[in-house]
Amino acid sequence: MEQFRSNRDYTIIFIKAGLLFLLSTLLFGLLGALEYVIPGFLKDVFTFEKIRPLHVSSAIFWILTCAIGGVLFYVREEHNGIFKLPNFPKIIFFILAITFSSILVSYIFGIFGGREYWEFDPIFTIPISIGWGLFIYAFITNMKTLKNQPVYIWMWFTGAVFFLFTYLESNSWILPQIRNNLVKDMTIQWKSYGSLVGAWNQLIYGTSIYLMDKIAGDKKYSFSKIAFALYFLGVFNLMFNWGHHVYLLPTHAYVKHIGYLVSMTELVLFGRIIYLWRSSLSTAKRNFHIVPFKFLFAADVWVFLTLALAILMSIPVLNLYMHGTHIIVGHTMGATIGINTMLLLAFAYDIIGFRKNDSKKIYYGYWTINLSLIIFWISLIVAGVMKAYYQFNMPEMSYGVMINQLWPWFLLFLTSGICMIIGFVLVIFPLFKNKN
After folding, report:
1. Is position 154 within any domain?
2. From 11, 40, 113, 308, which residue has the greatest number of CB atoms within 10 Å?
3. Tally of domains in the chain
């Protein structure tokens, strides 16, 4: 175990670097919200064109960095502290940390690649692909085989491989035959982005299953038939659930039909959450004193809320009204903050730990985040509904007038966002104070 402790440094550094990206996400998110409420705020210093990619990319880097650190740490733990290629976490960390930081700096200097979400210059694709390839190689080297492995091993493998594949696919716009065909370009872009989210969700959800087994003290669920059934449903969604993103594109009808049918398979997950809700409440009563479990439970609630909204978004006629409104932003925030961030914080607290005298800060921070997030989420959905109404029923209304009508909801969005940031600060800093 001592060997394990001496070799795990860079898995923890991965997670702490991810927490810094989370703080960066919160900072740029606050600046972006202020621009909504105070027109012209920082216009001469930081335009919204810079703040948005700084915010979005920081959030993605937080997810990827912490997910990699969690997987590498738990792979070592799974093998009793023995990790082949012990220098690989360090190499992977420096490649990705330098690349991610350079991307944020490039945004500040106004250097963009022009893509949605992956807005950086495509030259950064090279080191990201190399770093991720080394991550896959290190994982496979330590696993040897997938035979007779628990479900979280399959999820880690699927997430790692699919992420690299779909990330490279998302950069196919560099090819002239893709870039010069608008419909093909947008179809591939939206398809790949949907699959990328599914890929990193496999990494995160797999790690959450590992942690739940760790808290429970057994691996019954990880080898169960229901776990593998839901895993294959998740992989199926990863590959095909993107279809509802392209409803508005003039692409083949069968693509949209398949996308709709696959999206509706999420009802299986939704129904299971409702069915198991009562038992999950009784489990929460027993384990809520465990800090990582608090975050796992919060993520469970947000899975319910986010999945409900996702199912509504997958209905074509509703998607027509919702597309391009703040409802989509609300859905993204619910998934990114409520699900992914809560799960990643659970891993961080399990791996890094905290001092007992920080328990009250964590408690108050936890509830501040979740209560603020509810208000934050609702304000975006209401703003989205109102925007959809104005766009379809009052098309003569100018964009400026429409935004002014939404201002009270943006103010609520900003206020709840500030409270949420305070909660995150209370939760994040105890992780840096611990010497692990």
Report:
1. yes
2. 11
3. 1
